[in-house]
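Side project, low priority. Logging it here so it doesn't get lost.
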Amino acid sequence: MKLLKPLGLMSAILLANSSTLFGADLQVDVVKQSEWDSGFCAKVSIYNPNSTKELWNISFNAGGLINNLWNANYSQNSATLITTASGVDWNKYVEANSNVTFGYCATKVVAPPTAPQSGDLAVTQTDNADWGSGFCKNVQVKNNTSHDIDWEVKFIVDGKVTKAWNSNYSQNSTTLEMSASGVDWNNIVKANSQVEFGYCADRVTTATPTPTPTASPSPTPTTNDLFTKFGIGFGGSYAFPFTSNTADEKIWVSSVDLVLDNNIESNEYYSNIKNFDASAFDNLQNKLKNSKFLVFWFVKGWEENWFNIDKIQEAINAGYTPVFNYWYFGDRLNGIPSESEKAEYAEDNQKVATFLNKLSGTKLLILEPEFNKEAIVSSDSNQHEFASIMSSAIDTIKSNTTGVLFSLAMMDTGNRGENQTYAKCEYDNCSLGDKYEWGRPSIVYNDLLPKLDFISFQEMVGQFSRDPSNPGDWENPNPIAYSNADIGIDNLSTRVANFTQYLKDKYNKPVFLPYIAVATATWSDANSNGSIEDSEINYSGWDSKADTLYQELSSMKTELQQKGLFGFAPMALFDDPRHDYDGYQYFMQNEYHLGVIKSGAVDGVDIATNGDISPKSNIIENLFN
């Protein structure tokens, strides 16, 4: 009988495809098969490299209290977690050059959090808002120890606290000392990590003789005026590609011209667009000049010559606000970037800073839209590291520019079905929202909150897309079609309002929706072959759904503003027959129908939009009236 040396604690707990040779006889491989908050299951494989069979008996640290074990006999010391295992009748020998396996499930053993001791916690306060007679502050509580702490902090406030968020609190009315502790979801601050809460207070003044009043300027609020007025924008590009009357050439229509050029119908350059409808462009310009936000994109590999800085400055001077979605990692954010990728990103941050510093006035910069991909939010450590990368980007750009307001945009992920009544959604049904999913990236936001001026989210829906549970690869996607109830399209405006309220309540920052898209084609698999064919697509199947959504959002402006939203923008102004043509195309053929204006361009054939433009239903009228 060969008794193996105990499996090292870290090897057993990490269980990440680790393979370790013990002595010179048997090789043991322990691999975690599944994991959840309170437990995990693992597979143990024992390989015999020798020329004779061996009677096996091993000892190892199981990493938790075993509650189920199969294909072996075992005993476990509940204090040390050391487990001894041996074979049952049919597998007690491991044959030469062969292996035997067994498996087990265990409950994680977590050390209970401790109460804080002197010096364990560091408290930092940063300004949130100030209006002279009162103020708001964000408070970061950093755990400097190697163990978890059930936190509580005390400090003097220069005023009487009127409200607090993300904490339970009390205040001594005489000394003004505030005591704060965590709520259910943030009461434990992890080792070498931090949590954040905030409060507002009225300043306390002492009775002094009132001086003779003199004229003086009113205190300047720290909250940007931009956040106090609701605005609508449009996006897709700085300039939109149109097919020229000359084969295989494009004409680029400037977004700035679409808001400033009152004679766009007479523009000689634009008149060379294929099927140019002068009256349609004139009508569009008359509507778009009522917009507030012009949404542009920085993508990986962007160049400054993609933009006309003088034109953008002209729009800023006329009262429009540019919004830059900084989509650097994008769909390829499948884990924490490598060190070389971080270095390349840092160089691009400086490039963005140099560009933005050439523009005078307020600019909105939204870092890494759709960051809350599974590879980031599934791990606390990944969330902290991703936040650190974004924090460095903000520091680089802010230190080299003026007038930039920063945000970070998450996808609206989670359940959307009207018939999904999961408790974790916390609404009557999940088409109204999914608070569980919305809360998953909270570590990233909490780490970055002192540096963010506002919080952003995006909405993108379609009646058909890649199947999220079986998407296929880039070249061979697997489609899925949804019913209206499955995707919750008829409740999307309410979901937007609920998401806004959730983010405002959680982070106490203004909220922005930098892009929203309803892919307007529909698909029915008439021949049930699981493949999308042109004859099965209704290219305007969801035009009315998009029209209804934007009409509802427009009528809800006051309600949305009260909930914390200061604006939104359709993702794409025009349908693009080549959108993401060589890319991943999550919405497949629906990628060509993300705009709010269509044309006669043929999907995948024409190189760009044609000039015979027409709004989908009354969307433009509803948005920019």
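Brief comment: Residues 1-24, 206-223 have pLDDT under 50 and may be disordered.
Revisit when time allows.
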